[in-house]
Design brief:
metal-binding; DnaQ; 45% helix; Ribonucl_H; Nucleotidyltransferase, domain 5; five-stranded mixed beta sheet; nuclease; 16% strand; 2 domains; alpha/beta; elongated
C-alpha cells in the first residue's frame, strides 16, 4: 500500500482562466509508515499571484523568478507518484490545476500516472458530517500540532495531512498486520498463533454497540467507494 500525500499552492483559484501552480509537494507513505521520501519544488508561473492568494501563501513573484517551470520538473514528479494512490485535501481543486498543467504540455491527466485519487476532505466529511473539516480543524481534532503554520505551504500542509490521514484512517488497520500483504491462509495462521499465545477475556458487544459499529463501517464503505478493510477481514 503506497500513498502519496500531495498539496499545491497556486496563483489563484481558477485553473481554467490561467492561474498556475507555484508550489508542489508530495510525501510518501508505504504500509502506513512515513518513508522520509518526498518531492518538493517551487515553480515559476510566468504571472503574478492574485493579492488574495498572496495573503494565504506569501510566495512572491520575485521569489519565484529563478525557479523551474512545471515542464522542467514534470518527469521527476511523475516518476515519484507512479503507481500510488494520491491523498489530497479538497482533491478536485488540486486535480484541476494538475490536469491544466499537464494538458498545457500535452501530457494527459494526473490519473494517467497514479492508481487513484482520494479526497481526504470528502472522507472527513463522511466521518464528521456537519462539522468543520478543514486541515486546521482536523489537526485540532486529532491532536496534530500546527502551531508553526502561519501561512499555507504545500510541503508543510502535506506533512500535516499525512499525520491527519494516518490518524483518520486508523480504524481501517488490521489489528494484526497489513491485510494487503497477507493471504487469507497467512492471516488465519497468524490469528491462531496469537490467540494461542495469550488467554484473552472476551467481552461480547451489546446490540447497541454492534449497531454503532455497523453504522461506522457504512461510513467507511461510502468513503472508500467500496468495501472497507474491516469488512473484508470479517468476511474471511
Amino acid at each position: 500500500m503506497r500513498w502519496i500525500i500531495l498539496d499545491t499552492e497556486t496563483t489563484g483559484l481558477n485553473a481554467s482562466t490561467g492561474d498556475r501552480i507555484i508550489e508542489l509537494a508530495a510525501i510518501e507513505v508505504v504500509n502506513r509508515n512515513l518513508t522520509g521520501r518526498d518531492f518538493h519544488t517551487y515553480l515559476k508561473p510566468d504571472r503574478d499571484s492574485h493579492p488574495e492568494a498572496l495573503q494565504i501563501h506569501g510566495i512572491t513573484t520575485e521569489f519565484l523568478a529563478d525557479k523551474p517551470r512545471f515542464e522542467d520538473v514534470i518527469d521527476d514528479f511523475l516518476d515519484f507518484i507512479e503507481g500510488s494512490e494520491l491523498i489530497i485535501h479538497n482533491a478536485p481543486f488540486d486535480v484541476r490545476f494538475l490536469n491544466a498543467e499537464l494538458q498545457r504540455i500535452d501530457r494527459g491527466v494526473i490519473t494517467d500516472y497514479c492508481l487513484e485519487v482520494t479526497d481526504s476532505l470528502a472522507f472527513a466529511k463522511a466521518l464528521y458530517p456537519g462539522k468543520r473539516n478543514s486541515l486546521d480543524a482536523l489537526c485540532d481534532r486529532y491532536g496534530v500540532s500546527n502551531a508553526h503554520r502561519t501561512l499555507h505551504g504545500a510541503l508543510l500542509d502535506s506533512q500535516l495531512l499525512a499525520e491527519v490521514w494516518l490518524a483518520m484512517t486508523r480504524g481501517q488497520d488490521s489489528l494484526l498486520d497489513d491485510p494487503h500483504d497477507l493471504s487469507t491462509s497467512d492471516l488465519s495462521s497468524q490469528r491462531l498463533q496469537r490467540r494461542a499465545a495469550v488467554d484473552l477475556l472476551v467481552l461480547e458487544p451489546t446490540d447497541e454497540e454492534l449497531a454503532d459499529h455497523q453504522a461506522y463501517l457504512d461510513v467507511l464503505d461510502k468513503s472508500v467507494k467500496g468495501t472497507c478493510v474491516w469488512r473484508k477481514i470479517e468476511a474471511q
